[in-house]
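User: Fold this; tokens only.

Assistant: Input:
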Amino acid sequence: MSDSKAPAPVAPKKKPAYLQYLFGGSAGMGATVFVQPLDLVKTRLQISGQGGTAKEYTGMFDAFTKIAKREGVRALYKGLSAGLLRQATYTTTRLGTYTFLNDTYKSKTGKQANLFVSMGLGVAAGVTGSFVGNPAEISLIRMTADGKLPLNQRRNYTSVVNAISRMVREEGVLTLWRGCIPTMGRAAVVNAAQLSSYSQAKRILINNGMQEGISLHFVASMISGLVTTIASMPVDIAKTRIQNMKIGPDGSAEYKGAIDVLTKVCRQEGVFALWKGFWPYYFRLGPHTVITFIFMEQMNELYNRMTGTGGSSF
């Protein structure tokens, strides 16, 4: 009688870690092409009223109309090169890091990350990504805000490369990381909310009968976008105003830091001004989240089918 043993089952191939970064960055860049006009309008609304000036726009649609009329429809895509670089640096790093940490946790513990673990992984991924992406972030803020400034105060950056090189030449290399602390704070909030709420929403929806696919990814992404918008807008407005402010010849600045921004906004414009630009922010973040996660999930599924690799991205 033969004592030969049956061959052990072949474990599914493990996806190379670099692909998680590649898929994350590519998905974010693809989504940015669709939502860049909303990002520009969000920034214009957030700086409206800065420095005690009168509010220029009554809302999202008023901002769209006035910008298109005064600056041309193409102005809605001003800063696109900076937005793409931001995704190539920030989103590549944060989604790749989150997926890597999530996969590592599952392989070490043999179980899915719960809500609090997911939030911790999201914070770590967001803070890392925001530090890497801050030069592109400040370029994006300045390029999208430029059209609102008086002609003699405009920076007139022609591209993200021009913006970064001029900031280094005219203001010093450390300017590229101006507002880095509130940017990292925003990223911690955004990623704790966005990545964890997406993972949790997706799991709850599956447990309630939804099947894996684009419909599931869409619903989970919209839930994630709403949670993230509510949680992150106060930090985002602080980041935007710090990165857009000009430094006087004597070195004086309008704001001393994120807390100073929040205090002055509440005192001068009211508490609800912290959520100024809510709808363009959500309509930008919601679809951006949807498109990013759908692109990323589809790239993962395609790779899995082609290689026989198991598992999804989240």
